[in-house]
Amino acid sequence: ITYLGDKFTVQVDVAAINCKGSSTQLTISKGKQVLQRRVVNITDGDFFITEELTLEATRSGVQKYTVSLSPVEGEATTDNNRKNFYIDVLDARQKILLLAESPHPDLAAFRRTINQNKNYEVTLAYADDLKESVATNEFVVLHQLTSIRNNISEVLTTLRNQKTPHLFVVGTQTSLPNLNQSQGLLTINSKGNQSDDAQPNLVPQFSVFTLDEDVKSLLTQLPPITVPFGEFKAKVGADVLLQQRIGSIQTEYPMLVLGEEQGIKRGVLAGEGIWKWRIVDFVQNQSHELFDELLGKVIQYLSTKEDKRRFRAFANNTLYTENERISIDAEL
Q1: Rounded to an integer, what is the distance from CA 119 to the centroid of its chain?
Q2: Cβ pair 206, 228 in contact under 8 A
Q3: End-to-end CA distance of the chain, in Å?
Q4: Using one digit for the tens of pLDDT, what is the confidence trace for 266-308?
Q5: Residues 57, 5: contact at Cβ < 8 Å?
């Protein structure tokens, strides 16, 4: 078993009897496509060698490979010069959609963090030009949506029906009344179209996942992001990861809220401008590692689907030889 896009190693044992001084060509192929060739020089009458070759998994599913040796002069039989083997290539990548109201530097910060994880495949689209259904994605980031121009009612309906986890990112273009109706984690009662600058403050009681001590230290040094000016209230059952610190005043207003509603994981980041956090992390530590851990764990928590099947069955293999005993484990 290997994963799509990964490189994997194949070990081939080659034996030859009474062929000293000969050479053979070792070939690995898939269908009619030759993947690798190398010459094997037979240096002994009782010859044995292990060749190690590196291949790349370029297609998902069960892939058939063939390893073969070219005949040598006077060979008694060539029936044992060929062997098939199978690799189950799993595509474990989750498709993540960044759906935005308009271009914004936050989108680059999200994209770069998501691309750090090889198990994620990220696509960027705008609400005015959405060509594919969001149903094809396992996780969706809604940046400044719903907005005054785009209420994305069809998108939200699809996310609810498909139980697709999603994260709202609030910005100056967000329609707060629509946002309050679209999720049940956080209510924002804005006073006009004004905004405020707030720094993040970690909630010590947060226990959904753990953060490294260096990440906690970084949070105390991050610059403010732009949040709506108004009253914020987390609803019952919501897990508040970050609260707002406005100037020197520590408030109980949530900045980042996570939770689950009717079997759907949701989150609300009540501000825009986290691209500045990524830059500060690099200035302080010459890498984006801490920022990527913070945002990456939020995305990982929201995008991970729990296996809620009441009955589960597992075979001990995916391929069997003739007359092989098959064992299946089951859980109720």
Answers
A1: 4
A2: no
A3: 27
A4: 999 999 999 999 999 999 999 999 999 999 999 999 998 776 7
A5: yes
Cα separation, 265 vs 315, in Å, equals 30
**Residue in 205, 193, 209, 211 with CA at minimum distance from that of residue 234:** 205
Residue with tokens 């679209």: 182
pLDDT of residue 111: 96
Please answer whether residues 318 and 328 qualify as being in contact, where contact means their C-beta atoms are separated by less than 8 angstroms: no
State how far the Cα of 200 lies from the Cα of 218, in Å rounded to an integer.
10
Packed helices 275-285 and 289-303: angle between N→C axes, nearest 10 degrees: 140
9 beta partners: 54
Q: Which of 147, 163, 169, 131 is nearest to 306 (CA)?
A: 163
* pLDDT at residue 91, rounded to an integer: 79
Q: What pLDDT was estimated at residue 297?
A: 94
Neighbouring residues of 240: CB distance < 8 A, sequence distance ≥ 6: 203, 206, 234, 254, 256, 257
Cis peptide before 304, with omega less than 30 degrees from 0? no
Quote the pLDDT of residue 304: 82
Alpha-carbon Rg for the chain in angstroms: 28
Instruction: Yes or no: say if 202 and 256 are a contact pair by the CB < 8 Å rule.
Output: no
63: which DSSP letter? E
pLDDT of residue 46: 95
CB 59 within 8 A of CB 75: no
In what side-by-side order are the strands of the sheet with 2-3?
Answer: 2-3, 82-90, 61-69, 23-30, 33-41
Integer Cα distance of 304 and 124 in angstroms: 20
Stated pTM of the model: 0.74
- Give every residue of the chain whose pLDDT is below 50, as ranges: none
Max CA separation in the chain (angstroms) = 92
Whether 273 and 225 have beta carbons less than 8 Å apart is answered as yes
